[in-house]
Structure formats: structure tokens, C-alpha cells
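Pair request: fold both.
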Amino acid sequence: MKRINGSVVTAPIGGQEIRFFVANERDAIQKHHAAGEFYEAEEIAIIARHFPAGAHYVDIGANVGNHAVYAAKFLAPASVVVIEPNPPAIEILRLNLLLNDLASRVDASLLGFGLAEAEGMARAVVPPNNLGGSGLVLDAAGATIPLRRGDDLLAGRRIDFIKLDVEGMELGVLAGLEGLIATWRPRMFIEVHNRNAAPFRQWLARLGYGVRDTFRRYPSNENFMVVPE
């Protein structure tokens, strides 16, 4: 038995009763849940504008489930798959799925894996009060998180929409997903760190994608809504 200290916040949002488990009210994401609101309202609105009804949705870097819960409750997806490597985030994510009656509607079978360009192992590094800002150190001492290529981990699944937020590892993750992206041509909402901006735009051009919307919340990165051309 394992006990996680925290509280459950219930809030009416969009005509539904949404529940969040909050373990740390000072956390960058969980403080919004503690206030009874989804994190990144502007980004979620962009996703909603471009999300096809009945889409098969994959949330890469799902963290505690903010975007996955929103998509499952409000966007009428055919399926939702969550991928998150960091154990403390996974614990809260699972609770948020249970609290919102989503445990049977969201595929959590791939939790515990990280995505990368090649297989390997990694260790999570968690900044203070920012579980969502956790990064992975590849092939580090004490690494316990298995890394897989998205083409392998998600093989056989239809993908219509990808949300990708992997704290600077986006180019490697996308490289490992190119086969599935070529097959399904999904719409994608991707957080891109500034250092990756130029090669990311080159990657978009090579794969035949165009930018339809952007949003910058933090100085260090920008979100891109991209669609196949």
C-alpha cells in the first residue's frame, strides 16, 4: 500500500464536474488545479479549435493529465493514449483519470516509458515546484526509465492528433515518430524550445507540415499548432 498526501479539488468547468488531485499547491501546474481550473487555458483553446471530432489522440508528456483529462472530457476523441515517463507525475495522472471516470476510456498502458530517437535509458530531473518541467538525462548513472522510439511503442495504433511537450527533447521524439507521422499525417500541437526552433521549422518543411497557430507562454519556448499541407 502506498499513500499520497494531497487533496481533491472539485470544480464545475464547461458544464461538467471536474476533479483534480493536488499534491503540491505551489507546483506550476497543480496550483491551477488547486484553484479549480485547467492549466494553459490558451493552449487548450488552440487544441480545441483544431481537434477533429472522433480523433485518436496521443498525449506525449502527459504529466499529471491536464491536457488528457480536458481532451477526454470535452473534445469527443475516439481514443486517448497517455505517455509520461516520470513516476511522481504518473501517480497523480492515474488519480486524475480515476477521479474523472476516465480510467476505462484513457489508455495508460504506456506510462513509464519515455520517447526518444533511439532506445536507451534515462533518469528524470525534477525542478522545485515544477513537476511539468521535469527533464530526462539520457544514459545517466542510476537511469531507470526506458526510452523507446515512438514508431515502435505506438506501432499499430491510429493517430490523428498529437500533443507533444517533452521539455526540449522534441526533435529526438519527432525523429522517432516519423514513420507513424508519415502514415497518419496527424495534426500536432508541439512545445518547441528556442534552441530547437530553426531545426524544427526545417523538420516541418521536410515532412510537409505548416504552422496554423502559435502561442508563447514562457520566454524559453513556443507552442506550434501544425497541420499537414
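--- second member of the pair ---
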Amino acid sequence: MSEANPLHPEEGIFSVDVLLKYMGNDDKALGIVSKIVRDACAPGMAPFEAAAAALREQRYTDAGKVFHSLRGSIGTLGAKRLVSASLKLEQAIAERQEAHIPSLFAALESEYQLVLRDAAAWLRSIAPQDGQAAQA
């Protein structure tokens, strides 16, 4: 299984190594984790579109909930930088620090795009093993 993640992503962007380890680090775990990754990333940029609309309409609680949910689902993928950026934005939203929200939103959006990029690369890298595991 050590070859399951041949990529060496930047620290804290995306890593499912710990999740794989806790799930048994075998082909079954790889299949489950790949599904978790696909499901977590499936919404693409939709959460940011929804949160941006909520912020424009000053529905701060709704925007905060979007980011909290995103942090929970994507955070399980070893996205430490995204978690940190999300917490900063969520705090600014909760405290209505409107001057800081746009830059924090942009920083979080950038981190999320990096997670999506690295998750997609990881899924491509395991595709042969994932396909074999699904047939087994």
C-alpha cells in the first residue's frame, strides 16, 4: 500500500494517508477512501457560489454554515491549510468583520482549489488499483 500515494503533495493541502492507515491500509480501505474523496469533492465550487451569494445578501449565518460544513467534509482529507483558512473566515463572519471577509474568502477559495487539484491527482494515481479493488 505504500505505493498507493506516489504523489508528494505540499504539506497540509491534501493527504489521506492517515485515513487509509486507520481504515486498514488495504485495497478495501483504498476503495472506501477513494469514494470518500470523490464524494467530498463532488460539489466542486458550488459551496463557494452559495456562500458568496449568502455573503452578498448579508446572510452571514448561512455563509458560516456553508464553510463549517465544507471544513468538516474536506478537513477529513488532511486539508490542514484549508481548515485553518476556514476557521479564520468563519470567525470573521461570526464577528461581522466585513473588511476582512473578502480577502479571507479569497484565501479559502484558493486553498479549496488546491485541495480539489490534489484530490483529483490522487484519484488519477490510484485509478488502476481502485478499479481492481472494485472488481474484487
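Observation on the second member. The chain is about 70% helix and 0% strand.
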